[in-house]
Specification:
The complex is a heterodimer of chains A (about 120) and B (about 150). Chain A is mostly beta strands and about 120 residues long. In chain A, a hairpin with a 5-residue loop joins strand 2 and strand 3. The chains are: A mainly beta (about 120), B mainly beta (about 150). The interface between A and B is large, with 35 and 39 residues.
């Protein structure tokens, strides 16, 4: 199958196929949430992360390889990555750090200061 | 089993078969388990694309989140081997996993190469989590265009 045919298959119904990336969600002992999303081939410029009230959306587009040739093996999925998460009220919307390194996106979601465990000092 | 209304798509029999195949492919498109492919691949083997060009073959492999020094590529007796190790997340011991779909550990993938490859000129690069290997063909195996001479 030629790469041309593969591209045609991908955009047959007029839109790009959305792939769900593999992801891990980890809560650290300090309360921060780590979200790791595997998006091979996505660069910083092609990645969009949006927070809209209580939804976190991750959209990563992969550049379509323009090289023409005869595809002998084609196992890598084509399309762009999309994943959405619902955020609960304890997450600080304004304090989300994102690092993209070697196709692995790591998001660190911080808890709101008011949600962190606190010890109340007893006044004498 | 409930009856499902026939989807009023374009009534092209060929498209219907295409659609059916897509549905079946999507059913098995389950990215949760790393797959094992190939007779000698007894560890996780990442997905690859192999494309033949007139002057070279290219192999692309999805390897997200791996440091470059952990990837080992070798060619022996016409077999290209990509192997390495994916390090896990460095999280503290009492971290809680809500969801874990990413895998860690060693991986290996072997590809038999056609005889026309020049093993000395193979180049590999790793960018944005995608490994790209270029395998140039030997001079005599390249596609040559033969010019017609006007007489």
């Amino acid at each position: 199958m030629s790469t041309k045919q593969l591209e045609k298959r991908q955009t047959k119904d007029g839109r790009e196929k959305l792939l769900r990336p593999r992801c891990s969600v980890i809560e650290e002992a300090e309360g921060d949430i780590l979200v790791k999303v595997e998006m091979p081939g996505v660069t910083k410029d092609n990645l969009e992360i949006d927070v809209n009230s209580n939804e976190l959306r991750i959209n990563g587009r992969r550049p379509v390889s323009s090289s023409s040739g005869n595809a002998l093996v084609s196992e890598r999925p084509r399309g762009s990555f999309y994943q959405a998460f619902t955020l609960d009220d304890t997450i600080d919307r304004h304090k989300i750090d994102a690092v993209l390194e070697a196709g692995l996106l790591t998001l660190r979601l911080h808890r709101k200061e008011s949600e962190k465990p606190r010890r109340i000092q007893v006044k004498s | 089993m409930a009856l499902i209304r026939y989807r009023d798509r374009d009534l092209e029999p060929v498209n219907t078969f295409d659609w059916l195949q897509e549905q079946i492919n999507d059913l098995f498109d389950f990215p949760r388990f790393p797959e094992i492919r190939g007779l000698f691949d007894r560890t996780v083997s990442p997905a690859i694309d192999v494309v033949e060009h007139p002057d070279k073959f290219t192999v692309e492999c999805d390897l997200p989140g791996i440091s470059q020094k952990d990837i080992d590529i070798s060619i022996a007796a016409g077999v290209l081997t990509i192997k390495g190790e994916k390090k896990g997340e460095n999280v503290t011991d009492n971290a809680k996993y809500y969801r874990k779909e990413t895998w860690e550990g060693s991986f290996q993938r072997t590809i038999s190469l056609p005889a026309a490859i020049d093993p000395d000129k193979v180049e590999a690069s790793y960018r944005d989590g995608v490994l790209m290997i270029e395998l140039p063909k030997k001079e005599e195996a390249k596609t040559r265009r033969i010019e017609l001479k006007a007489k």
